[in-house]
Each structure stands twice: as C-alpha cells, then as structure tokens.
Amino acid sequence: MIVLGWREWLALPDLGLARVRAKVDSGARTSALHVDEQWRFVERGAPWVGFRLTPGRAHAGVVEAAAPVLDEREVVDSGGRRSRRVFLRTRLCLAGREREIEINLTDRRGMLFPMLLGRSALDSAFMVDPARSFLHGRPPANPRP
C-alpha cells in the first residue's frame, strides 16, 4: 500500500488537469473538485456535464472540460449543509498509480485546496500519514493521454 501525506499533488488527465493540489481526507467519503461554473447538456442521448475551473493560481489559466454524468446525489459537507451534486468517473494519477475514481463537482472557492480526495478514492491502494505532506511531488506538466 502506498503512503500519502495529508496533502498531495495529483492529476486528472481525462479532464485536462495535469496538476491539482488536493487535501487527502479519509473522513470524507467522496472526492470533490472545485468548479467555477458547470452546465448540463445531452451527448448521443446521454446526460453530460461541462465545467470550467481555475485549478491553480489565476494566471495559470482556465480549464474547460466535459464528462458523462455518472449520478446525481445529495452530499452533506463538513458544515452539515446538504446539496445535490453531479458525480462523474475519471482517471486519477497519484504516486505513480492510476485508477478510476468518482468525484463530485462543487464550489470550493473558499477552501485552500481545489480538490478533496475522499476515502472511496483511497480504498485498497493508499494509506494516509497525517503528519506528512506532498510525499510524491508534482505530476509532470503534460500527462499522457
């Protein structure tokens, strides 16, 4: 099993995100990605979600992506507030491993990390050492497709 720190760099290459700072949170069941804006559309008869985000500093640029909608569920945040969120499946690259994970899209504008990596993404592959951080460095600037 690979040990992660409480914060790590990861990549979501299918969404065009080469480097994203994430808080690794084994107390959160699901993973969440900050989006500035999202919209729904239909592609070949199936529901999709398009979204726009600024993954790092404002000068780093805006990323626009789209993915099929996996599900829509109620999520309770750490403050006890309920909201209905869109979920999608995407490829995670972290610590030299790749795996498919579910993430939900939400507004994390007031948070320090644009991504929260929850325990369902860690399952059977990663352990967390809360005393350490950024154990695996930054992913390469250009993830492979």
Automatic annotation (TrEMBL):
Molecular function (Gene Ontology), one example: peptidase activity
Residue runs in coiled coils: none
Domain Retropepsin-like aspartic endopeptidase positions: 3-138
Record's keyword terms, sorted: Hydrolase, Protease
Pfam families for the chain: Zn_protease
Gene Ontology biological process terms from the UniProt entry: proteolysis
Protein name as annotated: ATP-dependent zinc protease
